[in-house]
Amino acid sequence: MKPASFDYVRPKTVAEASVALGRKGVNTAAIAGGQSLIPMLNLRVAFADLLVDLSRLDDLKVVTRSPDSIWIGALTTHAAIEDGKVPDLFNGLLKRVAGQISYRAVRNHGTIGGSVALADPAADWPCCLIALGATVRVVGRNGVRVQPVSEFVRGQYETTLSAGDIVMGFDVPTPSVPTRWGFSKVARKSGAFAQSIAIATALGRSGRVNVVLGAAGPKPRALRTVAEELEGGKSGDELRPAIEADLAQVAPGADDYQKRMHTATVLRAIRDMRTQ
Amino acid sequence: MTAITIDLNGVRIADDVEPRQSLADFLRERCGLTATHLGCEHGACGACTVVVDGKATRSCLSLAVMSDGRVVLTLEGLRNDQIMDILRRQFHECHALQCGFCTPGMLIMARDILQRHQSPDANTVRHELSGQICRCTGYANIVKAVVAAGKDLAAAQAHALAGALAEAEALIQAEVQARVDDQVRAQEDAPPKPGTE
Ligand SMILES: Cc1cc2nc3c(=O)[nH]c(=O)nc-3n(C[C@H](O)[C@H](O)[C@H](O)COP(=O)(O)OP(=O)(O)OC[C@H]3O[C@@H](n4cnc5c(N)ncnc54)[C@H](O)[C@@H]3O)c2cc1C
Ligand code: FES
Ligand code: FES
Question: Which pTM was predicted?
Answer without folding.
Answer: 0.93
